[in-house]
Amino acid sequence: MTKIDYKKLEEKLTCVRKNAWEEMSDKEKKDALQFSEGYKIFLNNAKTERESVREGIIIAQKMGFKNIADLKTLKTGDKIYAINRDKNILFAVIGKNLAQDGFNLVMSHIDNPHLDLKVNPLYEDSGLAYFKTHYYGGIKKYQWPTIPLALHGVVMLANGKKIEITIGEKEDDPIFMITDLLPHLGKDQLRKTLEEGVTAEELNVVIGSFPIADKKIKEKIKLAVLELLNKEYGITESDFISSEINIVAASKARDLGFDRSLIAAFGHDDRVCAYTALRALLDGKNQQRAQLCLWVDREEIGSEGNTSAQSVWLENIIALILEKTGQPADFRNVYQIMEKSQAISADVTAAFDADYKEVHDARNVAYVGCGVALERYTGHRGKSSTSEASAEYTQKLRSIFDAQKIIWQTGGLGKVDFGGGGTIAMFLAKRNMDVVDMGVGVLNMHAPMEIVSKADVYQAYRAYKAFLEKIF
Fold this sequence. Notes:
Elements: H1 6-13, H2 20-23, H3 26-45, H4 49-62, E1 66-67, E2 79-84, E3 88-93, H5 98-101, E4 103-109, E5 114-125, E6 128-136, E7 149-156, E8 162-167, E9 177-178, H6 187-191, H7 194-197, E10 205-208, H8 220-233, E11 243-249, E12 254-256, E13 262-265, H9 268-283, E14 290-296, H10 313-324, H11 331-339, E15 342-345, E16 349-350, E17 372-375, H12 391-403, E18 408-410, H13 425-429, E19 434-439, E20 441-442, E21 450-453, H14 454-469
Parallel strand pairs: 1-2, 4-14, 4-15, 15-19, 16-20, 17-18
Antiparallel strand pairs: 2-3, 3-14, 5-6, 5-11, 6-10, 7-8, 7-11, 9-10, 12-13, 13-21, 17-19
Helix pairs in contact: 3-14, 9-14, 10-11
């Protein structure tokens, strides 16, 4: 009787999670480390949606991409981008026959949890000037006091002039900060739950303490701040009404660990997928089928708004591409094209955290350093607020990634009844497209500093590139 080699049988029949660093060649490891250097530069320059769009355009233009608004006609192989309100952008390589073949799309979001200024933010109290804030997205409020903060955004002056602001990032810039109680006086605070320990109305940012030299003025410090802002930017207090100023962590993307294998940074969610998707598009070879990379806004608050995944702007741009390639551009044709198309919702997922094992299903979660994570569904509890990729579509993607020897794993957002979360996949599914979630596992997700593996970043890039190049 033939002796069975159970080790080979195990390798053949079981699904074994692999450490990406162990699987990659020396050259691939070097490529992964080098790739992450460009990603860190992007993170440092793109802490808001507007900045992400700006940096994406700079990167794409170096590769020959042109604004669709400047082109009268389009042909196969043309590289274009289209901008929506400076916070939503589509990059595309024009295929041979969009109406007949459809397109491959990788969609990610470029917003992330942060603090916004309230409409009337500036006030003075007890010898200090403050900005009042309103948090954006799902944050743990207790993580924001006592850390260095920076201001990023735009102010539209009453005369229509746009002022761009970035304060707190340069070494000689001032920073800003939210205060917290000292432990000696914080006994009552410490008895509260983490959710209650710091309230939304206590997330007030210290911005100054120097009063003007005039005893007749009641709020001397507030006026001193306004005087500085007016001299530097032309801003008056009423201009805050027409401003979009984000408060973000004043920190650079940094290598983490003795071996520099990880990256700690503000905004991995979801700029890690946005950057890797764009680089995949720029480096792609296929020009037979249209390739699209879409960056959207507002995902962290439900994708509501005219720059979000629910906006019909995508349909409008596809119609415009059809028109400029000489094809019928009615909306029935647009939706028929979507039915022929395939998509990846490129979004991050929760990585297994060994200090909080109780919230994860260890067999159905992404692990740091084990490759890009594929999730057939996300959602809450009974699969609510999610789409689910079909078995057929999942198999097609498996075959692509396995053929390219891309290191990938499956993931899930926690145990079933612990909460979960949503992505933008369901909004593409509503357009009758095949779509699946695929992205990088993140530690500290939604914190002011998040953590990813350089190996996972590189494998995400490889996966998106292989997908975009595929002719389905």
